[in-house]
Write a structure and sequence with these properties.
The chain is of the alpha/beta class. The chain folds into 2 domains: 173 residues, Flavin prenyltransferase-like (Rossmann fold, 3-Layer(aba) Sandwich), CATH 3.40.50; 203 residues, Rossmann fold (3-Layer(aba) Sandwich), CATH 3.40.50. Helix content is 33%, strand content 24%. An 8-stranded mixed beta sheet has the order 13-12-9-14-17-18-20-21, with helices on both faces. A 6-stranded parallel beta sheet has the order 3-2-1-4-5-6, with helices on both faces. Strand 17, helix 12 and strand 18 form a beta-alpha-beta unit. It binds cytidine-5'-monophosphate (C5P). Cytidine-5'-monophosphate binds next to helix 11 and strand 17.
Length: 389
């Protein structure tokens, strides 16, 4: 039986730790919990003791055999240390190597892999101090589970929410090497917009944030796939375990896709610009606006790949539509030679937003998926891909 030591930090998201413990137990993972002083204001040791069916530790002085270095033992008998929620304060202490309570002492003393799931107010998450601490922890080998984006308990909106307990369990299972359904597979993912230059400083672009494509790349990597992510210009961080190739234009993306073959599957999520213009070599002057922009078609990367002799076994396209979503997607599947089309209605705030409502169009028909966060769409799609390969 796998064992985790769960360190619960003092944030409102601590309530999710309870469900996480329950899911771990259901999955046959043994859990010992440590609560910081702050965490005890949000959940009680009694709750976690009942759910984990284990003693819960809150202070260094709980350890009965401190003479026998109880804190060292507790930090090492688990296979994995999970910090959830990891507050800004806890991350800062971890990054600095401060050990002034049981949780931080265990984190400094452990010789086991550490996974931290930060959760905090969006401004705290984006503060340069937290950015520095997270970067430090990553380079120290700590696995950081990116927080979800959405409405927060404090009334603000943005990244900083603790991922759902089921998602945390997925990360733990991945770490334990379970769920590696895609190991040995190479999967190509395109994501983000393209920038089509008009002159050296101006370009034509679209509103794609790359979020859905990056989440799919992350979900595939979590299932053990070797993932090449060809990305247009976006600010999203590269998911762990993913090889990223940055491109700017559709033509560069087409070349990068061809260079990344062979692949077992290709998931084309990028919002590729349909046209490019012959870019001026020098910056166009303000008073000399060209009266027309001569647009030329970009290569259709998805269609070319589907028709290529190196066609991956499974080719999945996306179809962003603002009307007759399924109808257009069904036609697009045949037109472009894709096996599946993931159709989404982008008439709302999908582009750049956290949630997505999609329909999966395959040769067998159409499946309507309920509205869900983009990373859940990604996980569900990754599992479908794993079963299809
Ligand atoms: O034709 P449309 O742009 O709606 O098709 C969307 C699908 O085709 C997406 O999977 C997108 O990544 C892909 N595509 C492409 N190359 C293009 C245009 C779209 O690969 N030039």
């Amino acid at each position: 039986m796998k064992r985790i030591l769960l360190i619960v930090g003092g944030g409102i998201a601590a309530y999710k730790a309870c469900e996480f413990v329950r899911l771990c137990r259901k999955a046959g993972i043994s859990v010992k919990c440590v609560l910081t002083e702050g965490a005890q204001h949000f959940v009680t040791p009694m709750t976690l003791a009942a759910l984990s069916e284990n003693q819960v530790y809150t202070t260094l002085w709980d350890l009965k055999d401190e003479t026998e270095m109880g804190h060292i033992q507790l930090s090492r008998e688990a296979d994995l240390v999970v910090v959830a929620p990891a507050t800004a304060d806890l991350l800062a202490k971890m990054a600095a190597g401060i050990a002034d309570d049981l949780a931080t002492t265990l984190l400094l003393a452990t010789d086991k892999p550490v996974m931290a799931a930060p959760a905090m107010n969006v401004r705290m998450w984006q503060h340069p101090a937290t950015r520095r601490n997270v970067a430090q922890l990553r380079s120290d080998g700590v696995t950081i589970i990116e927080p979800d984006e959405g409405p927060m308990a404090c009334g603000e909106y943005g990244p900083g929410r603790l991922p759902e307990p089921a998602a945390l369990l997925d990360h733990v299972q991945t770490c334990f090497g379970v769920n590696q359904m895609l190991s040995g597979r190479h999967i190509l993912v395109t994501a983000g917009p393209t920038h089509e230059p008009i002159d050296p400083v101006r370009y034509i672009a679209n509103r794609s944030s790359g979020k859905q494509g990056f989440a799919i790349a992350a979900a595939l990597a979590q299932l053990g796939a070797r993932v090449t992510l060809v990305s247009g210009p976006v600010t999203a961080p590269t998911p762990s375990g993913v090889t990223r190739v940055d491109v700017e234009t559709a033509r560069e993306m087409a070349n990068a896709v061809a260079a990344a073959l062979p692949a077992d599957a290709a998931i084309m999520v990028a919002a590729v610009g349909d046209w490019h213009v012959e870019a001026a070599e020098q910056k166009l002057k303000k008073g000399e606006a060209p009266s027309t922009l001569q647009l030329s078609e970009n290569p259709d990367i998805l269609a070319l790949l589907s028709a290529s002799p190196h066609r991956p076994r499974l080719v999945v396209g996306f179809a962003a539509e603002t009307e007759k979503v399924v109808e257009h997607a069904t036609a697009k599947r045949l037109l472009k030679g894709a096996d599946w089309i993931v159709a989404n209605d982008v008439s709302g705030d999908v582009m750049g937003g956290a949630d997505n409502t999609v329909h999966l169009v395959t040769a067998d028909g159409v499946e309507d998926w309920e509205k869900m966060p983009k990373d859940r769409v990604a996980r569900r799609l990754a599992e479908r891909i794993a079963h299809a390969l």
